[in-house]
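User: Structure please.
Assistant: Input sequence and predicted structure:
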Amino acid sequence: ISKKLSKKQKHSARKSRALAKAKAKVKLQFLEDKELHDFLHNIIGAEGMLVVKKIAEKELSDVDLVEKMDLKPNIIRKHLYALYEAGVVTYRRHRSKTGWYTYFWKLHPERIAAVIESKRNSELRKLRELLDYEKKSHFYECKNKCTRNVFDSAMEAQFKCAKCNEKLEFVENRERVEELQRRIGELTSSSVKQAE
């Protein structure tokens, strides 16, 4: 009977380990999405992605992370703070019996796409405002291209450059308008792909 219990216990332990590995793999699946991965990588770099992988599996304290990783505590905290500022991690504070606080960090992969979309929408809004400004304005600059002036400021300066005193002449901004339209198109199409 004891051998059968032992075999059952071993089987149960193997099953538990396999289940834990499967759960960890599912929790890291979001990193396979290139846009999500690139977004996080731009914030914290390759070194910080190691921290992301650890806190994606389960909530961990910064102390636990220091023990499990080959990184200095201040480096780990720097990455955690950057992720917190981006809105993709949260923390809870626990006070020990000795009065010291321990911070437990949790990654929220479901928030990453929303943060990306919010940043994209903000950038789209700024680009559309700039495009509108470019379309409605006439620009003037000197041959040295010191500054770019709208008509009113060029007229106030009597069509002379404030830096080099050269004559300000009308410049076509068609290329700039086309570039802004291209960037808006790219962001709009990537926004549609994200929604699908």
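DSSP finds seven helices and six strands in the chain.
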